[in-house]
Structure formats: structure tokens, C-alpha cells
Amino acid sequence: MMNRRTFLETASASACFTILPRHVLAGSGVVPPSDKITVAHIGTGTEGLREMPRLMAVPEVQIVAVCDPSKHAIGYRDWGTDDLLNELRTVLDKPEWMAGTEGTVPGGRDVAKNFVETYYATEQGGAFKGCSAYADFRELLDKEKDVDAVKIMTPDHLHGIISIACMKRGKHVIMHKPIANRLREAKLVIDTARETGVATHFMPWEANGSMDQVMAWINGGAIGDLREIHNWTNRPVWPQYTSVPTASTPVPEGFEWDLWLGPEAERPYSPDYTHMVFRGWYDFGGGSMADMGHYSLWTVFNALELGSPISVEPMLTHTCGLKNGIAYTVNNDFSFPTASTVRFKYPASGKRPAVDLVWYDGGMRPPAPELEMDKEEVPIEGMMFVGSKGKILAGFQLEDPHLMPQGSMPKDLVTPVRGRGQRGAVPSGMRQWIEAVRGGPQSPSSFLNAGPISEAVNLYAVALRTGKKLLYDGQSQKVTNVAEADKYLSREYRKGWDPRAL
């Protein structure tokens, strides 16, 4: 007898199999329940809730469980007081949804469960009560054995262990960036994806721009030999702390602090570690490059065949203080700097010569005197390709590339090259992931293709944390010149949290 999971895994065996829109299947306007890919949504903070409707809009997918250490909407931060609440109300077409909670940023598993059940009850009719809620992802995996896939929207330090535990149980995985916030843990995630063969979708793929036009100019000789890539962002847009929290703060009601810490060392609870601000801590986040570099650089890594860097050199801001009238520099190996510039050196590969990749954050930007000729300023975010004969300037995610100065653009090299085009209601990466879940090939957004970019963003953090230039051997995954850097390539797992034992 064929159950629903067996159907999903074998459906692609039919040569005529195709994924059909809602209105075609069953004549009822929806995909039959037996055809749905059931998903557990792990992580229901503000970003998790904001992304949730995009997944629920996919006809072939249904969320059946949510999971988060936080039960209630307490202590969440956002870009506006009621912005997210109003977004979710618009999705539901229910202006009175969660009436009385105005002024409180939504978040937590109770809000997520309510949203999921309200959405599906409206869509499918009746009092839909098909969404379970859990604090601990391990309990979810033990009890929801028939779930096909998970979507992971937790803080960075939980990505690796949760994805590994899920893949080892045969669950397909969708995950926000980064793969993990430790280099060797990220490798373990990718190795596990390869060994288990599950379908994985790394979400930054959907926001990557096209390198087609830039590569046409580079390959056509418009800027000579490529020498440098510069990429800069206005991040961070959250606090970067200059001291470790010391105030004694009660753990909020319904918040499982131990579960939120997960694999990281025990410490007293502080709201300055958690919602939104976790990205600024080396233990819990990945900094600005992990936040935005995946979006801007993954396509660049693929197009230029960037593998492992041979060196990583940081330049970063520091904090000073006074003690008894004597100035000192804060020894900060716990949080990312306010601003930094990090230079990666990549060896030659094939026809491509050796190239430097330079990342900037905190308002740092490269000089571009050529822009004066075009009466332009260096944008707050952007990307620049520097060659032996010229430069290409593009938006942060490769939007609207042009040669600098624009008058230098040869007419025979201005042929527009078609990129990915506009994304539809169901992004192409998600569509390819669905096909992979049902037995098709892995999609371009698979974890298997994210090794080099994951390595770079984790080495960025290690270089900043040590404050030293690192010489790196990609084959052994070791820093060869700074002994203390090695401990930052992995983490010491608390008892019960080693991903190899989950």
C-alpha cells in the first residue's frame, strides 16, 4: 500500500509527471492533501513570520507544525511597531486579526500557530486545526515522523545542528542564511546533505542577481584582466555591542532560554543576545557578511569559480575606554566590529587569474574616482569589478551594471544579456526544490553548491575575531599561521547538542 510520503518520493517516476497549478488538480482549486509536501516551520520570530506567507502561497506545500523556544510575543523587535502585524493581516485579509495586540511586535510559536490555522481555515474552509506547536525541534522530530520537510528560520547558531538532525531523519530542508556560523559545522551540514540525498534549498539563491552581463564584459576584454571584486553594504542595522551583558534580567515567561542557547556555552539570559540583535555576536550570528554577502556574492563565486582563499586580511574598528584616567583598547573577541574591510585572496583558476575579493560593511566603501566623470557618488551599497584596463560598477546585488566611466563603454560590448528575469509567485528555486523533493535532480540552490560562499563568510568572522591576517589551507580547512584561530573554526558543543549525536 502506497502512503503519502512514498507517493511524494516516487511520483517523478512517471515520464509525464509535472507540477500543476491549484486550479488544475482535483477540479477543486487546490492540490489534493495526499499530494502536499508537509512542512514543519522551525523558527517563528519576526523574520520567520515575515517569510512564512511566501511558503504558504506555494500550492504544493502545507505547514503542519511550528517550533520556537519562545511561546509568546515578548521582547521582539522590528523595523516598525505594527508593520509586521499589518503585513500578516493583509495576507489573511483580516484587518482585525490579533486585535488588541497592536503596539507589540508579533513573534513566537503561539502567534505562528494562530496565523497558520487562520490562513488555511480561510483558504480551505472550516475550522482548520491542523498545526501543532513545539518548543524543542527534537520533540517535533520525534512526534511528527510523517513530516516531509522543514524550513529553518532560527538564529544563525542553530542552523547547522537543526538541519543536520533533520536531514539524518530523511527530512528535506529549506534554510535561511547562513548554512552554519562555524566553518567546520557548515562543512558537516553540506556533507550530511550529500550523504543523505535529501532535497535542500538555501534561500539566498532567490535574491542573487545575474552575472551574465558582467561576465560578457569581462570575457570580452572590456576591463582587461580581472584583478579585484569589491562588495559593500550599509549593514549592520542592529547594535554591535562593545561589552558583554552583565545586568541580571529575568527570563521572559514562556521563553526556553536553554533551548535558544542550543549548542553554545551556558550564560545568563539577556535580551541583548536574542531577537534581531543575535547577528552581532560571534557566538550566535555571522555578522554583516553572513547577513548580506550570500545575496550579493553567491552568483559571483559560481561565475568566477572561486574556491578556497589562500589568505584573509581584516581591517576593523575598535573601541577604547578609560580606567583610572588611563586609556585602553577593549579586547573584543565576542562581538563584530562597527565597521570592517576584509580582503580575501583567491588563486588563479583555469583561465581566470588570481583575484582579490574585498568586503566592506558599516559604511565603508572603496574609492571610485571615475564616478566623478559621470557626476555620480559611490552608492551606499554596491559592487565593483576592477580590471587591468577598466572597472564595472553594479548595484549591491548586481543590478544595472555599467562600465566606469560610462563614456568608456565600447559599443560592440553593450549587447544586453538576458538574466534570470522577474521572479514569479513561486520563485524558481522553490519550484526546483519541489521537483527535487519529488525525486528530481538537486536544484542550483542546493546546500551542495554553497561550500565556497559558506567558507568565506565563516573565515570573515574568524579574521575579525582574531584581528589578524590569516593564511588558509582549504584542503585541510586549517589556518596555518595563527594558532588561536583554529578554535573559532568549530565550536565546543554543550552536552547533548553535538550534531553528530542528534
From TrEMBL:
UniProt domain Gfo/Idh/MocA-like oxidoreductase bacterial type C-terminal: residue ranges: 247-301
InterPro entries: Gfo/Idh/MocA-like_OxRdtase_N, Gfo/Idh/MocA_oxidrdct_glycsds, Gfo/Idh/MocA_OxRdtase_bact_C, NAD(P)-bd_dom_sf
Protein name: Gfo/Idh/MocA family oxidoreductase
Native source organism of the sequence: Telmatobacter sp. DSM 110680
Limits of the Gfo/Idh/MocA-like oxidoreductase N-terminal domain: 130-199
Domain of life: Bacteria
PANTHER family named among the record's database cross-references: BCDNA.GH03377 (PTHR43818), NADH-DEPENDENT DEHYDROGENASE-RELATED (PTHR43818:SF10)
A Gene Ontology molecular function term of the record: nucleotide binding
